Amino acid sequence: MTMSGLISNRNFGSFVGSGNVYRSGRDISVQRGGVSICGVSVAQDPFSRWQHKMHLPLEERIRKPMQKSHYKGEHFSLVSRQSSPCLNFRLQASGINGCSFVSSAPYRSNNVEQREEHGLGLSRRKHAQPAVAKANKFRVNYKSEEYNISETKIDPLQSTEGTGEAILLEGNLQQVSPWWQQFPKRWVIVLLCFSAFLLCNMDRVNMSIAILPMSQEYNWNSATVGLIQSSFFWGYLLTQIVGGIWADKIGGKLVLGFGVIWWSIATVLTPIAAKLGLPFLLIMRAFMGIGEGVAMPAMNNILSKWIPVSERSRSLALVYSGMYLGSVTGLAFSPVLIQKFGWPSVFYSFGSLGSIWFVLWLSKAYSSPKEDPDLGVEEKKLILGGNVSKEPVTVIPWKLILSKAPVWALIISHFCHNWGTFILLTWMPTYYNQVLKFNLTESGLFCVLPWLTMAIFANIGGWIADTLVSKGLSITSVRKIMQSVGFLGPAFFLTQLSHVRTPAMAVLCMACSQGSDAFSQSGLYSNHQDIGPRYAGVLLGLSNTAGVLAGVFGTAATGYILQRGSWDDVFKVAVVLYIIGTLVWNIFSTGEKVLD
Asked: Keyword annotations for this protein (predicted)?
């Protein structure tokens, strides 16, 4: 006889004959179409008979003759091992107490074969059809063979093993877990990365609000304020490529965890550094940039290993939307905290959130699926796609990487994209104030709108891109379509700003420009994992270095243009770069793997 599950004479659940559950005693016989408990048939009205018989002494119940099924010559009996050693079940699944089984299929057999087992005479009927057993929270599949126990004396007080445990031979045990345990592990990684990027921009933008009361307290002029704001990029530029190398060599978990805890500590120490003096504050802001500089390459590395290509766009879009929502959260809560508790409270409260994230990250995250011991077989198969996950790289093939045209397409396109994006995000409050004549409060309020728009449209673009891939469109075509929208959309809406006559239409054009810009998350920002998944961290470090330089130079160039020209000239330069980026991307980019 073979089963799957665990049956114990001490903690046995219940046998079910016709879809009903009955509490069982220590000794049970199962017949076709029903259950025989201690020799009493309970196929028709089992519960009342069982209650009656269970009051009898154990020895008397054991000696009762076993009831036969009304199907001629066919019956099945199951007797606890504490009652008899004649049935020997071997365990494959353990730790299951109180199971409930259903005997739902009749047994049809022939070709009776005699054999001796444990010194007892057993008449075994072969070719028995399987019966299905089900249990509360467990699904058990087994085949049962019928035994006719005849001329067998049973000592109910002896057990060959002494444990009284009935053990099963073989089977397939499937445990039904709660929904939160069935949540895909790869999306747990995505949500943790989303949270990290939420904290990243919360800690970055809080200085733009806190710098106002800080400059009043320490008597900083505009030049000093600009120096403090730019000091962040000193460290940020330093660790873009280095962070990618670290992530590709030692894994994204360690590098991203290091980055978050590093910039969180730097954020908490910012008020102390400001009180010590300006040089200490500049160093602390640079330290914060070092921590945030490794975040994007490390995230790109870990998602390249965890996310299948069919879900790549939407996962990256969700993570990057965390940055946008982090800006919204930081801009919304910083003024409230400053007003109630003073400007240092912003840095203490925001920075302390990183420690909570770090604890969750250490307990839940792994650099790759093969390192996660709790990852299900089916999900691992989906992630790996039937391929063996390769080891982290030991040497970065710089010559090979820089010789590929798609890599340069990424670098150039990232530069063109960030030039326009940083201009809009950095100079937008000034544009609202000088051109649209909004006051500072209204300017700050409308500055939140582009971040919200980008968060929404980034996720919409991600779902569209993954849907196109699932419909059979090539990855190359999808990346080119999405990035073309990310370039040409902002270019179109920026050209319309010179024609609008109302502030409402101007704000709408700016919002639409940023919304279409967010489609880039499913274009160039997803392409690093397409062309070189093993070097995704290094590739993002390279392209994002160009993107950060575009932000630094573009912001400075905009101020120079405004001294000698107008806002139309600023937008024209951005539109030209958007068009250049579109051409380079559509000519040289690809969605196929070019680095292995």
From this structure: Chloroplast, Membrane, Plastid, Transit peptide, Transmembrane, Transmembrane helix
| 460: Cα separation from own chain's centroid | 18
Same domain, 369 and 440: no
CA atoms within 13 A on the CB side of 340: 8
**Is 271 inside any structural domain?**
yes
- Where is the domain boundary, 370, 388, 406? 388
User: Quick one: 456 and 591 in the same domain?
Assistant: yes
Are residue 382 and residue 405 in the same domain, yes or no? no
Name beta bridge partners: 123: 114, 148
- This prediction has a pTM of 0.65
DSSP 24: -
Q: CB atoms < 10 A from the CB of 420, how many?
A: 27
Answer yes or no: do 381 and 506 share one domain: no
Are 300 and 420 members of one domain? no
Asked if the structure places residue 174 within a domain, the reply is no
Same-domain check for residues 441 and 368: no
CATH no. for residue 233? 1.20.1250.20
Q: Considering just the CA atoms, what is the radius of gyration of the chain in Å? A: 35
Which of 364, 388, 412 terminates a domain? The answer is: 388
Signed CA dihedral, 383, 384, 390, 396: sign only? negative
Quote the number of domains for the chain.
2
Is the CB of residue 570 less than 8 Å from the CB of residue 427? yes
- Residue count (the chain): 596
Whether residues 383 and 402 share a domain: the answer is no
Range of the domain at 303: 182-388
Q: How far is CA 376 from CA 171, 175, 184, 308, in A?
A: 19, 12, 9, 15
Residue 84 lies in a domain: no
